[in-house]
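Action item from last week, closing it out:
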Amino acid sequence: MRLNKLLVASLAVLALVAAACGDDEDDAAEAPAAATTTTAPAVHEDMAGDDDMSDDDMAGDDDMSDDDMAGEDDMSDDDMAEEEDMQVSAPSALFVDAALDADLDNCGPAPTGDPFIIGFAADLSEVGGFADIPISEAGQYFIDRINCVGGANGHPVEFLIEDVQGDPEVAQRATADLLDAGAHVILGPPFADTGDAVLQTVNASRAVIFVASTEPVLPDPSIYSFMTTFSDTQQAEAAAQFAIDNGFTRAITFSSEGPYFGYNPETFAAKFEELGGELVLDVSYVPFEDFDFASRANEVAGVADGTEILYSAMIAPQLDALRGAIEERGIDSITYFGADAFGVSGITEIPNNEGVYWTDHGYGTGGNRYERLNAGLAAAGMPSAAPGFAALAGDSITVAIQGFIDAGSTDPLAIAEAIAGLTGVEAVTDTIGYAGTDGTPDTPVYILQIVDGETALAARMS
């Protein structure tokens, strides 16, 4: 999610109210000690073993006779299929499920291969801490359990965190420190200004995966820049499609000039009208500052007939104030819909939230991975008020590890190329792939709703 500094400062206050951040920031910033682990559910052998071949071994390969080579060519389709099966990397679902079920008090032998290092250029300040503190905590939690079940095909996974402090210059230094420490993949912060600084410093030398950002300008596979989740374009257009699919023909938007608060409503309105709907009113407001919506509610009352869907990317407490002002004017049948800011700014906590929709990054139900990760965090004393971001931490780490496994190498460029070609990666929120995309994954948009005071899944938009 691409939010400005005013947004995240306000979210930091909301996070304190919701006790979102916990007391584990310092612990999350440390690289994990060598964990005791059980054997990983991997298929092919330790990749480090390839580097240990002797000259005689390699010479032996060169001494193969023509008949030997012909024999290779004479392999049947079944033989080749068997050979391919032997070399296929462990599907992501195996190590993700094993990690989520891991018991840190009952780990087996530690992985012994060369470490796979994931560096996180995290914004732990008031600017981006609403996202990157829970991501850091959930990331360390997840990696500890991956190491407990054998690491990445027998290789321990290390998690190094450097704080970019919401400052592009600091972000450049922090990223350089991660590169000097040998990070094979970099996870990036939530905002484009610090994100661009990370990309400039990395200079296409390895993959950068932006964990929480929905900013469409960041992904670019030509420089190995990827997002973990959908873009603002995808979430706004999914909201418009959902509105049309559910019979809405009239819409009102509340917007503020800028890349998130303006871009999402503008994109929603454009898609809504393209699909045959009518935008009857757009109202401007100031994010985080405006809580007296009396005059704006009068504007709404002047055009609304009660059948409209009202879409905005504002934070949840502002929606509470806006909805109250509109209902005071006798209009109580408008449907309210928001972007993913709702999910991290307390939509489940505001008093007047019944029936509200918003786009989010996943949904926990029936013991799925999203639910198990967040339940595990809660059991470990780290409950997250931003469960979607906690799940995105698991997604980004899963993508990085699958790229490493598929590359069969510790070469950062080989890993980056493998990530660019990923398809069908079973992560925490859903299935992720990058092949044929602009660096934005083909992951779905989840539409959630408050029903009888509880969060419910309204739709999964692919």
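Closing note: Residues 2-89 have pLDDT under 50 and may be disordered.
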